[in-house]
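Handover notes (outgoing to incoming on-call)

Open items:
1. WecB/TagA/CpsF family glycosyltransferase: sequence verified, structure written out, both below. Nothing else pending on this one.
2. Nothing else urgent.
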Amino acid sequence: MTSEATVIDLSITRTSTVTTWLNHHSALVADWDAVAQADAVGVDGTFLQLMLSLQGASVTRSSADLDLPNILRERHREGRTIAFVGGGLGIAKAAAERFSGVVLAVDGYDGVADHPRLVQRLRASGATVIVLGMGSPAQDRIAIRLRDDLQGVEIYTAGGWFDQLAHAENYFPPMVHALRLGWLWRLCHEPRRLAGRYTVEPFVAAVRLRNVARRLEMSGLRLYSDKRFFVHRDPVDEPDVVQVVTQLERAGAQTLSWWIENQASGTSGFRSYFLYNKSGSDLFTGSRCLADSRPGSPRGLMTMLRKLRNLMQGRDVVIAHTHYAIAAVILMSMSMRPAARPKVVAVHHWPIERYPRLAAKVYSLGVRKALIDEEVFVSPSVRPDPDRGVVIENPVPLAAYGAAARRREVDLLIVARHSAEKSVSTAIDALQYLPGRTLTLVGEGPLTSELEAHARAAGVEERVVFAGPQPNTEVRKMMERASALILPSRWEAMPMVLLEGIACSVPLVVSAIPAHGFVSDSGAALVFEVDDARGLAASVRSLDDEVTRKSLDAGVQAVRDRLSEPAVAERWLTLVDDILAPT
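WecB/TagA/CpsF family glycosyltransferase structure tokens:
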């Protein structure tokens, strides 16, 4: 294979080493704690190299499929033995048959599920060079664990190289690499799997990785003298931003904070913290709650606020979501010296006039004392006047994009809390005008029992499925199989469920309230009057019209364009940059 890369020279010691690679795709999903612990990090892919160049970091191109063949052949000539770990069933073995010196081939699924067993097999094989081909972030995490468990081995990550090697020893013709067209070659051979990676993802990466050079340095990495690889050094200081949310549960504010942390804010993330845990959320693997539950005593409240004050100390920016989080951040700001106060962004998910009385009073005090540096309203429907703060609407989640299956496996679907403002009973009543149709309700709440009784009284209980709370991934699968997503609410702010519906290409039927204007005004949803069961049923029936469906598809695309992840992420990052800019 013709390569512009040269063999990496890592000395053989009793200390194990890890070498990994980043491209624009893996950088978006990377486990940066694991990447920061690697001994060498190569820059893979023309797009990431270009991004780093624009950020002032000149890095020579490198990648697993360019460098690894040279490295492994050199190690084999030295008498070292090699292990391949990764890929689907049989892939590592097929790749090993094309390469000399491989003494062990382990698949990347069942073969790595039992880590102690994997370590035992690697030790027994005698391999001193281990190649992991599982993709990010799994391969980086496993590489660091193996480095801790094994002595005197070199560990390399390989991404999809095993699949390429299993297909052909020279997967890329030499001219493809010379012209930097490897991405196009892969796209032509794997269009279904890689279409998004080489079309949409570069635009997402351009926003979310705009400070990737600084993020790499913050992880403790610097350039070798030949500008090929990043290696360890001491971290450098950079602005520190955290988010504070009232309670950990499945709701819009928590979803937005997760998205800002994981999708919008680049590789470091704007970490989310919660005053207390209400019911949990499958979006967060680590809760980061200041209290286990809502404080029930003055002592518990003071302990929680003291932890919040400690969290805020030394931060550059605190983004406070929801009324009580805003109030708590304001109170703790008042307890700090002016020079030590972080900048505060108040994010309003409700109209301010709907705030609880105590939170509203503290908020008003914070406004009078100029303790809020910027206000963000998630929808025009919650903004009190056009000159107040800024509106940053929530994004359509890119990861959920897909073409809806034109089947009625789920039929009519509602994803909502069972509370008065959601008016779920209107959809149950609409079934009386929709013979043969079924309604699935995802969620629960204080009115669940009443809704069950309502379905029995209306004689449609056999056509209403109470599915209860579901993981976010399962909800999206249900949306993709539904014939319509219904939201009959009497009041909303910026419903995340409609954004996920837009991403999943499910037809939308919504009540005529201001908060639903972002889909109805764009023609992305059919509308009925609040509490009008007959109108809801008529809207559902009209979905059978092909002209109506095509019009809805055009409206969906308009919303996707306006509220794309890159566009919304840019607004959030610009907001933080503006707040931190010298005055």
